[in-house]
Amino acid sequence: MRVLAIAAFLCASLPAVTVQGQHTLDIVENNGLSENRIDLVIMGDGYTSGEQQDFASDAQNAIDHLFLKWPSNQYREFFNIVTISTASNESGADHPSMSEFADTFYDCAYDCAGLEHLICCDYSTILSVAGAQYPAHDVVVLMVNDQQYGGSGGTVAIASISPVAKDIPFHEFGHTIAGLGDEYDSPYPGYVCEDIFPNISFTSDRDDLKWNHWVNEDTPLPTPESAAVNNLEPVGAYEGACYQTVGLFRPVDECVMRSLNNDFCAVCTEQMVLSYYGFVEPVDTYSPSQNSHDGVFGDSIEFVVEAVEPDPNTLTYTWDLDGELLSWSDSADLEFLFKCVDQGEHQLTVTVSDLTSMVMVDTKNLMTTSVSWTITRTDDGPVDDCDDLNAGVDACPDGGDNPEKSGCGCHTIPARRTLISSLLALLFL
Ligand SMILES: [Zn+2]
């Protein structure tokens, strides 16, 4: 958080860094190299040259709201954020059904596909400006300077500035970043829902439910709305989703993918967090960067990994030597003592995993990264019993399991850690 606060302070005083033609790029937040961050671009349409200050404040409001709620509030360091302001000739957006038209740069219009609240824009121009101004962009949100409720998701998340719908960017974020489907059941004539959304099921059968790992055994399936104790619980299979009232199922009664002014349900939250890890690897850098090291009795090497940490930090660090779990460290650094190993080649591996309770199943193993070094002890001197050296190498005598011993430099380990550690040990055997 300290790094974030400093970055935010620095950025608050940054001027516009690029002015090209009629587009201005401002860096709002820089949390790391684009290669390992989600580069979020906020753009605007229907803001005249005299309304650029409005765009700046609307964009900031959208950013504030996007990062107010979970899971993005815990993963803000995973994002770089910029704005690109663009002057339109006229204010607002097209409303073809009312024969109202505005000459705007990205030509945004309501009534898309005959739906009053669906906004479509000139996507190729949006993406070409984003690409020219900020080639590293991953996610684009376009704010439409119009008070009428509306938006759309897809390649670009589009949201009006309707005061009753601050959640639109949040909802569209779900489409754009995590590929979530709408959980509405209001009909959308002609739309055929495909079975491609992680939060929409074509069956309520427990075995075939995509999110059955979130469903308690005593939750009835399909789940009647009367069984809901609140908007988000229990997770089940509620009929009505993806613009169909029957035959399609959603995970909870009222997720933000169904109605605004809600939160993401557990199923959508899990997909959001997994989607972050589609862009960001847990480990940013590590040192030493060389992968092979030689040494003799008396030598030591400090190994360090720099990880992208959620807030609160749910990362765990597991170090193993030749497949055996090391109790020397459960943090981002480890002092390796050559006297603790015998002559020859050894493999030291650190595995960094996010054990957030928001994700139960990570089939692609996106939330884990391992880094390995080959370490060779070249002398045939004595080998110390390093179980006795724990206190001397900045670790806890109990291996870090006892939070009461945090004073000695160890970390409280989440309950799942023990199991994961055991599994890792098994995997490496
Ligand atoms: Zn949901």
Strand order of the largest sheet: 1-2-4-3-5-7-6
Cα Rg: 26 Å
Could you tell me which ligands this complex binds, including any ions or cofactors? zinc ion
Strand percentage: 15-25%
Number of helices: 6
Main β-sheet description: 7 strands, mixed
List keywords for this structure.
Collagenase (Catalytic Domain), disordered N terminus, five-stranded mixed β-sheet, flat, Immunoglobulin-like, disordered C terminus, 6 helices, 3 domains, binds zinc ion, alpha+beta, 18% helix, seven-stranded mixed β-sheet, 429 residues
Description:
The protein has 429 residues and is an alpha+beta fold. The protein has three domains: 2-178, Collagenase (Catalytic Domain); 206-266, no CATH class; 282-428, Immunoglobulin-like, CATH 2.60.40. It is 18% helix and 24% strand. The chain contains six helices and 17 strands. The protein has helices at residues 2-12, 52-66, 123-133, 168-178, 266-279, 415-428; strands at residues 18-20, 23-29, 38-45, 79-86, 139-144, 151-152, 156-160, 238-241, 244-250, 283-287, 292-295, 300-307, 315-321, 324-325, 333-337, 344-354, 368-377. The strands form four sheets. The chain has a seven-stranded mixed β-sheet with strand order 1-2-4-3-5-7-6. Strand 8 and strand 9 (244-250) form a beta hairpin. Residues 1-21 and 388-429 have low confidence and may be disordered. Zinc ion binds next to helix 5.
